[in-house]
Design goal:
Layout: E1 2-6, H1 12-21, E2 25-29, H2 33-41, E3 45-46, H3 50-56, E4 59-62, H4 67-75, H5 80-83, E5 89-92, H6 98-109, E6 114-117, E7 120-121, H7 123-129, E8 132-137, H8 140-151, E9 154-161, H9 165-193, H10 198-205, H11 213-224, H12 233-249, H13 255-269, H14 280-288
Parallel strand pairs: 1-2, 1-4, 2-3, 4-5, 5-6, 8-9
Antiparallel strand pairs: 7-8
Helix pairs in contact: 1-7, 9-10, 9-11, 9-12, 9-13, 9-14, 12-13
The structure holds nicotinamide-adenine-dinucleotide.
Nicotinamide-adenine-dinucleotide binds near residues 6, 8, 30 and 120.
C-alpha cells in the first residue's frame, strides 16, 4: 500500500518507520525537514506538501498535535484535500476533539474519501516497538480495509464506534492517566513527609490493587527527577481541555479532571509546559516543599 504520513514528531516518526518496515511505501511530510530526511534515509519518499502526499498515496495518515493542526494539514492551500480523489482515505491518529473528527469526515465524504479517527495510547517507547494501542472510530468496512495497516504500528487495534468514537475513547484514557499520575504523586508525597521511602512504597504496592501501567511507567521518572518527555504537559493540557469541552457539551461533570488540569496549568505557569506529564509530581514537590528523590 502507498501510505502518506504527515506529522513526524515524537510519535509519528517511529510509527512511520514501522509502516515502512512492514513493506509499505511511505510518502512523508512534516513542517520540520529533519525527521523527513531521516525517513528518506530509511527508504521513504519525501513530499513537498500535503497535496503531493495525497496525490502519491492511497491512504494518508496524520499524526499532529491538535484539531487546528489537522484542519490546516487537510484543508489549507496545498493541503491533503487538494490531492485526494474518491476511494482514497484519511486516517487521523492525532488526539483531537471528537467533534472536529466528525467535521473532517463529513467534508472528506463530499469528495468520496473515507475517514477514520484512530488516536493512540502508549507513548514513545511503544511507538518505537510497534506496540501502541489504537482506538478507532469509523465505518466497519473502512476499518476492515485498514486494520492490517494499523496493526503494523500497534499491538491492539479496536473499533469502538462511528467517527469520533476513537477520540472520545482517547479522552477517557487521558482523564484516567492524568488523575492516576496525580494520585501517585500525592501518595508518594505523603510517604516522603511521613518518613517512608516512596521507592519502597512503590515496590510494596505495585502488584496490589493500586498498581497500574501508569505507576510502572512513571514512578522511576519521579524518583529520578527526570521529566524529559515522553508526553509533554502542554499536550496533556490540550487533551484535558478537549475532555472538559466535550464533557460539558454532554452535561457530564468532571471534577477530578478539572483539578488535574489546574495542576498542569500551574506547572505551565512555572515554565514546565515541555516537561513529561509525570512532572505533575513537581507540583506536589513545590506545594509541599519536598523532593521525591531519595
Ligand atoms: P510532536 O509535537 O512531537 O509532533 C508533531 C509533529 O507535527 C511535529 O513534527 C510538527 O512539526 C508537525 N506538524 C505540526 N503541524 C503540522 C502541519 N500542519 N503539517 C505538517 N506537519 C506539522 O507531537 P507527538 O508527541 O508526536 O504527538 C502527536 C499526537 O499524538 C498528539 O495529538 C498527541 O496528543 C498524541 N499522542 C502523543 C503521545 C506521546 O507520548 N507523545 C502519546 C499518545 C498520543
Amino acid at each position: 500500500m502507498k501510505v502518506g504520513f504527515i506529522g513526524l514528531g515524537i510519535m509519528g516518526k517511529p510509527m512511520a518507520h514501522n509502516v515502512l518496515k512492514a513493506g509499505h511505501t511511505v510518502i512523508a511530510y512534516d513542517h520540520n525537514q529533519t525527521p523527513v530526511d531521516e525517513l528518506v534515509a530509511a527508504g521513504a519518499i519525501a513530499a513537498a506538501n500535503g497535496r503531493e502526499v495525497a496525490e502519491l498515496a492511497d491512504v494518508v495518515i496524520t499524526m499532529l498535535p491538535n484539531s487546528p493542526h489537522v484542519r490546516s494539514a487537510l484543508f489549507d492551500k496545498d493541503g491533503v484535500a487538494e490531492g485526494l480523489t474518491a476511494g482514497k482515505a484519511v486516517i487521523d491518529m492525532s488526539s483531537i476533539a471528537p467533534l472536529a473528527s466528525r467535521e473532517f469526515a463529513q467534508k472528506l465524504a463530499e469528495q468520496g474519501v473515507d475517514f477514520l479517527d484512530a488516536p493512540v495510547s502508549g507513548g514513545e517507547p511503544k511507538a518505537i516497538d510497534g506496540t501502541i494501542a489504537v482506538m478507532v472510530g469509523g465505518d466497519e468496512t473502512v476499518f476492515a480495509k485498514y486494520e492490517p495497516l494499523l496493526k503494523t504500528m500497534a499491538s491492539t487495534v479496536t473499533l469502538v464506534g462511528g467517527v469520533g468514537a476513537g477520540n472520545i475513547t482517547k479522552l477517557a484514557n487521558q482523564m484516567i492517566v492524568a488523575i492516576n499520575i496525580a494520585a501517585i504523586s500525592e501518595a508518594y508525597s505523603l510517604a516522603k513527609k511521613a518518613g517512608v521511602s516512596p521507592e519502597n512504597v512503590y515496590k510494596a504496592i505495585r502488584s496490589g490493587l493500586a498498581g497500574s501501567v501508569v505507576m510502572d511507567q512513571k514512578s522511576q521518572k519521579i524518583f529520578d527527577g527526570n521529566f524529559d518527555p515522553g508526553f509533554r504537559i502542554e499536550l496533556h493540557i490540550k487533551d484535558l481541555q478537549n475532555v472538559l469541552d466535550t464533557s460539558h457539551g454532554v452535561n457530564v461533570s468532571a471534577p477530578f479532571t478539572s483539578l488535574a488540569m489546574e495542576i498542569m496549568q500551574s506547572l505551565k505557569a512555572h515554565g514546565h509546559a515541555k516537561d513529561d506529564h509525570s512532572g505533575i509530581a513537581e507540583w506536589y514537590e513545590m506545594v509541599n516543599d519536598l523532593k521525591l528523590q531519595d
